[in-house]
């Protein structure tokens, strides 16, 4: 499948299939993050409100956000007073050396980590102060997240990992299975759809993680080092796919990377150095 075709497949999803259903179970990933990332624990007041005026696009604004990790008496200032905005239709890269705070900033933008200070708004609505129990619904509704460590469910095949996200978005099982296979085809993994994560290479797991993040066509895609484990043939394929989602799909795509091969594909980049954004 050409990338053009693949991205067309990606964009055709959202409107055509059923969606919006509350997750009944609580799945455990190795890190424990993913269960709460995907599941909605109760019916959400804010989610209903958000449905009214977000119009399927997501502007993200962080204003002077800081994150301080505390380990006993030691404080690590991972991000310091960072201000950042990304608009629908844009693909923005957050760059910087290892340990400079990229994952921390992306996790705050994705409502996975709460900032110590500062504000974060998605679609113009503050999310930093929301109740912890409301965040999974907001992430599920608005965001697809590619974790640096992939966070696939070990007991599920590649296709089932992707399908699980579609199930949470309300896809019927047969439609979800079909769609999961299309998405895996779009990242060049049609042949490995039925393999378990333990039988996949790092780069293959990374591509499953990308397919899962774009499943259900979220308005905001946050990808942590999406090309780190890939040779450039596959790296170029996924970065083209993400760019097409931003450009043709009008989605907001934020990637963390230190891979300068992606430079021709991004609209702009910001640099983090020791937790501070520098231009
Ligand atoms: N949970 C945590 N507790 C304490 N310190 C942390 C925690 N997570 C990250 N840090 C520290 O915060 C700083 C920023 O970490 P972060 O993972 O955001 O960096 P990064 O830029 O994503 O690095 P890399 O490129 O290696 O992935 C580092 O000094 C890291 O050791
Ligand atoms: Mg990181």
Structure description:
With 279 residues, this protein is an alpha/beta fold. It has one domain (3-278): 3-Layer(aba) Sandwich (Rossmann fold). The protein has helices at residues 3-16, 33-38, 45-53, 102-109, 135-142, 158-168, 173-186, 202-214, 232-247; strands at 60-71, 74-86, 91-95, 117-122, 125-126, 143-146, 220-224, 252-256, 268-273, 276-278. The strands form two sheets. It has a six-stranded mixed sheet. A four-stranded antiparallel sheet has the order 2-1-4-5, with helices on one face. The chain is globular.
What integer value in Å does the Rg equal? 17 Å
Shape: globular
Q: Unreliable stretches, pLDDT < 50, 5 or more residues?
A: 1-45
Q: How many structural domains in the coordinates?
A: 1
SS field, number of helical segments: 9
Kindly name the structural category.
alpha/beta
Main pleated-sheet profile: 6 strands, mixed
Say which CATH homologous superfamily is assigned: P-loop containing nucleotide triphosphate hydrolases
Q: End-to-end distance, in Å?
A: 38 Å
Tell me the β content. 15-25%
CATH topology type:
Rossmann fold
CATH architecture label:
3-Layer(aba) Sandwich
Encode the helix/strand succession as letters.
Answer: HHHEEEHEEHEHHHEHEEE
Helix content: 25-40%
Enumerate the distinct ligands: adenosine-5'-triphosphate, magnesium ion
How many β-strands, per DSSP?
A: 10
């Amino acid at each position: 499948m050409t990338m053009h075709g693949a991205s067309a497949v990606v964009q055709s999803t959202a409107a055509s299939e059923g969606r919006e259903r509350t997750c009944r179970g609580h799945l455990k990933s190795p890190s424990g993050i993913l269960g709460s990332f995907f599941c909605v624990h109760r019916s959400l007041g804010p989610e209903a409100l958000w449905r009214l005026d977000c119009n399927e696009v997501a502007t993200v604004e962080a204003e002077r956000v800081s994150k301080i990790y505390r380990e006993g008496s030691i404080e690590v200032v991972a991000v310091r007073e960072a201000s950042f905005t990304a608009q629908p239709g844009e693909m923005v890269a957050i760059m910087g050396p290892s340990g400079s705070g990229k994952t921390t900033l992306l996790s705050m933008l994705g409502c996975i980590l709460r900032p110590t200070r500062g504000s974060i708004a998605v679609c113009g609505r503050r999310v930093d102060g929301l109740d912890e129990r409301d965040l999974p619904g907001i992430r599920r509704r608005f965001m697809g997240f590619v974790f640096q460590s992939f966070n696939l469910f070990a007991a599920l095949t590649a296709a089932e990992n992707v399908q699980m996200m579609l199930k949470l978005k309300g896809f019927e099982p047969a439609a979800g299975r079909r769609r999961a296979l299309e998405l895996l085809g779009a990242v060049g993994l049609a042949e490995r759809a039925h393999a378990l994560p333990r039988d996949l290479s790092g780069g293959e797991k990374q591509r499953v993680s990308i397919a899962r993040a774009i499943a259900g066509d979220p308005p905001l895609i946050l990808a942590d080092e999406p090309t780190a484990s890939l040779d450039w043939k596959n790296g170029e394929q996924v970065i083209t796919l993400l760019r097409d989602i931003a450009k043709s799909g009008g989605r907001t795509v934020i990637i963390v990377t230190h891979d300068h091969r992606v430079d021709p594909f991004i609209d702009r980049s910001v640099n983090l150095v020791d937790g501070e954004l520098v231009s």
